Amino acid sequence: MSANPLFERTVSTLLAGEVICEVSNDDLNNYLLLPENQQQVASFLGQLNRTLRRTGTGEAWVCAYEDLSTSEAKEAVRQQFSLVANHLEPLVHFLRLIMAVEGSQRPILPGSLVQESVILDRLSSVPSLEAKLRSLVETQFFRTKKTDSAGQIRTVMTNLEKAGYLKSHGTTGSVYRATGKWSWLYDVMTFIETHEGIQTSDPEDEPQMRLA
Fold this sequence. Notes:
It is a single chain. By secondary structure, this protein is mainly α. The chain has 2 domains: 5-65, Orthogonal Bundle (Arc Repressor Mutant, subunit A); 73-185, no CATH class. It contains 8 helices and 6 strands.
């Protein structure tokens, strides 16, 4: 591996299955914006049956399997898909809640600000949104025993931050920025929407599912 610390961190982050973007890892994202660095990283990953890929919107970098003919690669992709499938429904519910709070038809985009105070203010004035929040925290991904809206929202935000979808912004601990992992998720959602019977489909059919 190169002695360049940015190269080492970039490769380690990608192989750990994390998404690199301007929000989550600004320095690594800037490093990958240079073609010569992309080539160096891709060359190294190729020795491990991996490839460097950008999400559909070009806002994030991920590590994907290059050849899915090996049993190791197929099993890793199946596990990745199973994890996504388990989390997809609550994530969609969260997106719908935020869109309703903001009165917008636009989903969360990488770099978007998500503020607990704004959500709580809107919840207090629209009872139907509180019902959506209660339904959300009943899902396994966001489950909590907290009964107050503030506590429930904090749990949701904390879980999204742990999963890499949000990053704390500022010093209050209640303001977040959306990461490029949403861009990756939208790629997966598009794949699911356009492929019937995805549970039994061959992961080799779609590069979106070739995550490390």
